[in-house]
Amino acid sequence: MSPSFRLVYVPGVMPDKWVRIWNERLPDVPLTLTQVPAESAQGLLLGGDADAGLVRLPVDRTVLSAIPLYTEQTVVVVPKDHLVTAVDTVSPEDLADEIVLHPLDDVLTWEGLPGRPALERPATTADAIELVAAGIGVLVVPLSLARLHHRKDLTHRPLERAPESSVALSWPEAATTDRVEDLIGIVRGRTVNSTRGRRQQPAQEKKPAQEKKPERTARRQQPAGGSAGRGRRGGTGGATRNPRRGRPRRGS
Question: pLDDT tens digits for 62-75?
């Protein structure tokens, strides 16, 4: 059996579809899947502890290759009875009087966090969710993290004019192996027979076209007296008329 391929992914990413396609196309190469904290993924790739990763941008592009896959919507997580649940979308101004929690593992890059800061930053997003449930503040995260930490007593609304988080497939630049190329083809949606993919099925040889055999019998020519030889003036077929007709004799 071939060595396994080690794929790490960060919280919020759902790699199930790609894993299923990998297992269908490469059944002899086990895929080892490990969830890691977002801040640890880059170090694992550079340290050789993973072959590729589904990570959050940015990454160090001088040593890592990355293919952006999608960008997530940013939402604010609040208790279900919060005032902002009365609107479809929330603006930063709507949070001016709110304590906006800023966990240490936040994946958003802020120029200025809306609202009022908490006295202390929660260690993790999971800890911040518990504080929101306790009514201590609200939390701004990518949509996938809001879903990952879903609770029945919490809900979320899209936040306008907020930074967004993008997810990418990344791997060490110096280790672009055939297996990495296989994974690139999978996440980009290429078919197994794609001309851009590495793994291509050998083209089937076309059978040489059979030469058309000449007809053995020529068409039989129509006789002159047949339908092809009938007079053009509407005369009947048969023997041709004598062009020289004698004059009638005079009576004696």
Answer: 999 999 999 999 99
